[in-house]
Design a protein that fits this description.
Number of helices: 12
CATH superfamily: Alpha/Beta hydrolase fold, catalytic domain
Strand order of the largest sheet: 1-2-4-3-7-8-9-10
Strand content: 15-25%
Low-confidence stretches: 122-152, 289-356
GO cellular component, one term: mitochondrion
CATH topology: Rossmann fold
Radius of gyration: 20 Å
Helix content: 25-40%
CATH architecture: 3-Layer(aba) Sandwich
Shape: globular
Number of domains: 1
Largest sheet: 8 strands, mixed
């Protein structure tokens, strides 16, 4: 279902897939668009929010899915103005200010407008009792939503945030707000007068959203300017104060495209160092062409352009006018069919992984 919903800071298009007996929420923020009409049809399909919902539903089969479309696009550049404190014309963030709580307020109000609950229903877990256990998330080396525990906010549905390319700026803002929120919560538990400040700053549904976050997935995060990753030392250090700190897992899924831009590498390295110093569970997966097992596209952001021939996967597509199609072969040792992020939706027209 595609809906235009009004949040606290304006309207956003959201593509939704509801689960009657859901075991978690997955919220996805996409990246820039390729607007060139000469691009292969598969590229345009990848950028369609309905298709992204379908792919996410396969990876998180028991979760309610929400694909949030950027507030505006400038020549294909995604701009998440309603989630950030300030952006350039093309959507680059002008820093991450946690005190505004703008991202969490917009997200939580959009979910509320969509009538998506934060609390688990009484029938949750029925499928597992009948012996049905999801496996697709495990196959993609993802961390499926884990139970929050009886002592953690009365059975809130665990929430996974997923960002691709430019969409990761929203994840950065949410992490900044999580750190600030953790500090305020800690002050309340210590008996200070911060509880009144907390109630003044955040709505109840906003606090429930922040309390429910257990997973953050960065998929090929990248910008043409600084800010692809969150690197504020004090803000990240505060994450250890979160009630759900033991369940919070932050993953970085990388293809060679993201791994070859030095400013992005430096920010990511710094962010991971700070997260680990704060005790956060992190996972980094660099997806090289010779692995032929997994990349961002396989579990989310790629079309399925594959044909299995004699135990090898041949993946063909027209790269651009005047170029010959690329063929990527799957080693007969591994029979896994694959999809490739042959075309990176952030950056050059088509970033081709050919094993060279």
């Amino acid at each position: 279902m595609l809906a235009v919903l009004r949040g606290a800071h304006g309207c956003n298009k959201i593509h939704l897939l509801r689960r009657d007996l859901c075991q978690g929420l997955v919220i996805f923020f996409g990246g820039d668009l390729i607007v060139d009409a000469r691009a292969p049809a598969a590229v345009h399909q990848l950028q369609d929010s309905k298709h992204q919902v379908h792919l996410l539903s396969e990876r998180f089969p028991d979760c309610t899915i929400a694909v949030v479309v950027a507030s505006r696009f400038e020549g294909g550049f995604a701009c998440y103005d309603r989630f950030l404190n300030g952006t350039t014309l093309t959507g680059e963030p002008k820093g991450y200010n946690p005190s505004s709580y703008k991202a969490s307020e917009q997200i939580s109000s959009l979910l509320q407008a969509a009538n998506i609950p934060f609390r688990a229903c009484a029938q949750q877990g029925h499928d597992q009792k009948n012996g049905d256990h999801p496996s697709s998330a495990d196959a993609a080396n993802l961390h499926p939503p884990a139970p929050l525990g009886a002592d953690n906010h009365q059975g809130l549905l665990p929430c996974q945030l997923v960002g691709f390319s430019k969409g990761c700026v929203v994840l950065n803002q949410v992490l900044a707000e999580l750190g600030q929120y953790a500090e305020l919560q800690h002050s309340c538990r210590e008996g200070s007068h911060a509880s009144e400040t907390l109630e003044q700053k955040l709505r109840h549904d906003q606090m429930r959203f922040l309390q429910a976050i257990t997973g953050v997935h960065y998929l090929d995060a990248g910008l043409n300017a600084p800010g692809a990753h969150y690197t504020d030392a004090a803000g990240i250090a505060s994450l250890r104060l979160l009630p759900q700190a033991q369940q919070l897992h932050i993953s970085f899924h990388l293809t060679p495209w993201a791994h070859r831009r030095q400013h992005v590498i430096d920010e990511r390295t710094r962010s991971i160092e700070l997260l680990r110093a704060a005790g956060a569970a992190t996972n980094t997966l660099l997806l090289r062409a010779h692995q032929y097992k997994l990349n961002v596209a396989q579990w989310l952001c790629s079309g399925t352009i594959r044909s299995l021939v004699n135990g090898r996967a041949e993946i063909k597509h027209n790269i651009a006018a005047g170029r010959t199609p690329s063929v990527v072969k799957l080693s007969p040792i591994s029979q896994e069919p694959i999809t490739l992020l042959q075309f990176s939706v952030c950056g050059d027209y088509l970033s081709v992984i050919t094993g060279r």
